[in-house]
Design goal:
With 398 residues, this protein is an all-alpha fold. The chain folds into two domains: 226 residues, Cytochrome Bc1 Complex, Chain D, domain 2; 154 residues, Cytochrome c-like domain (Cytochrome Bc1 Complex, Chain D, domain 2). It has a two-stranded antiparallel sheet with strand order 1-2. α1 packs across α6. The longest helix has 14 residues.
Length: 398
């Protein structure tokens, strides 16, 4: 992976070229609780942000099994303490019926979300019939790649506002002028430009200081012997590399591995259930039966920061994920056997080999310094990633 300030080497949407000014603006908007100006309930105003569910110390995940924006309160030590605020009806909560994926290493994805619904290019090039008008998916018509489309759509989905009046009142106007000098003033201060800035920032969120990345750059002592053994197994006998490839060890492929859904969690979840369309994975987007129960191959860095695995957060230990793949016994009986891929078969790994692969995934792919991507303060002066009273207390903002 390149350095995060080596913008020319970071994969980017040609319609949203990276600039330092755009990245700097996106970093602030991403964490800005002051743009939470379209809440379902007044008590939620200015209390949440993009980073409520994707913050640095949780590997840009949520720190809990289900992310919670508006309607949540508290933070705890690392996001695990967030809960539904007592006065919020379930229907007004800003939650998703699948586990929150990481916002990190997204530069290596052309389509976003577990079902890959965001992005007009690549695997979505011929899916226009699924870009339903009046839904977030219609943002694909803008023609951007996945990160840009998701960021633009996410501002509305998550009840965030980005218009000229708010931009001026929060002190962002000059930053927009610097980031988008070629845009006419009548369109420069908008959800589209705000989303493009956020996406530019997200493209720089790279786990490029992980030991494996350092080892690839020639630092041969960056990994210990067990981690190296795990890497050899990962790229060999364990067959992980058949699906997890490239700098982020992910891919734009979709597979059914028989994981439970989020509604199967032992904890209380919201807006979930056995019939929500998100449980169908890629099929819920394309409408094709052959795509049902298939979910996008995720990236593999900093997984121990937020110990919830699978689209339904059904596994809680990284070693259990490796053991699950080794045994190849699906846990969810609702997933038809015919949907499981040929690559999902017993691997014959020993317990020692499972341990070694776990060490590689857990430690060699762990970047310990993600806090470097977090701003020290916001133009608004508000607390982040959350700004509700309990979170401010947990985060030391007051």
């Amino acid at each position: 992976m390149p350095a995060s300030d080596d913008l020319g080497r970071i994969p980017q949407d040609p319609h949203n070229p990276l600039t330092p000014q755009k990245v700097a603006l996106g970093q602030l908007l991403y964490h800005e609780t002051g743009i939470a100006q379209n809440p379902e309930m007044e008590m939620g105003r200015s209390t949440y942000s993009c980073s409520s569910c994707h913050f640095a110390s949780a590997g840009f995940q949520a720190g809990r099994f289900q992310g919670m924006g508006e309607g949540g309160e508290g933070f705890g030590a690392n996001g695990e303490g967030r809960r539904r605020a007592g006065d919020y009806p379930e229907g007004m909560l800003d939650v998703q019926p699948v586990r929150t994926p990481t916002a990190m290493n997204g530069a290596y994805q052309v389509a976003m979300l577990w079902n890959g619904q965001f992005g007009a290019q690549g695997i979505n090039a011929n899916t226009q019939e699924a870009w339903t008008a009046g839904t977030p998916k219609e943002n694909n018509n803008l023609g951007y790649q996945g990160l840009e489309t998701q960021a633009i759509a996410g501002l509305s989905v998550h009840r965030l506002v980005c218009d000229k009046d708010l931009i001026e009142s929060l002190g962002y106007k000059e930053l927009f002028d610097q980031a988008f000098p070629d845009w006419p003033e009548e369109t420069r201060y908008s959800k589209e430009t705000g989303g493009l800035a956020i996406a530019a920032y997200e493209r720089t969120l790279l786990a490029n200081q992980a030991p494996f990345q350092r080892w690839l750059k020639g630092e041969k002592d960056a990994m210990n012997e067990v981690e190296k053994q795990g890497a050899i197994l990962f790229f060999g006998k364990a067959e992980c590399v058949k699906c997890h490839t490239g700098p982020a060890l992910n891919s734009m492929a979709f597979y059914a591995l028989g994981f439970y859904n989020l509604n199967d969690c032992p904890e209380e979840t919201f807006k979930t259930g056995p019939t929500v369309v998100e449980n169908l994975g890629r099929g819920g987007f394309t409408g094709k039966a052959e795509d049902n129960y298939k979910f996008k191959v995720p990236q593999l860095y900093n997984m121990k920061d937020s110990p919830f695995f699978g689209h339904g957060a059904s596994l809680r230990k990284l070693r259990d994920v490796v053991a699950y793949k080794n045994a190849a016994i699906p846990e969810n009986p609702a997933v038809p056997q015919a949907q499981l891929p040929a690559a999902f078969h017993p691997l014959g790994l020993t317990e020692q080999e499972v341990d070694a692969i776990t060490a590689f995934l857990q430690d060699a792919l762990y970047d310990p310094g993600l806090i470097r991507y977090q701003p020290t303060s916001l133009p608004s002066g508000l607390c982040f990633p959350n700004n509700d009273p309990l979170s401010r207390q947990d985060l030391g903002c007051e």
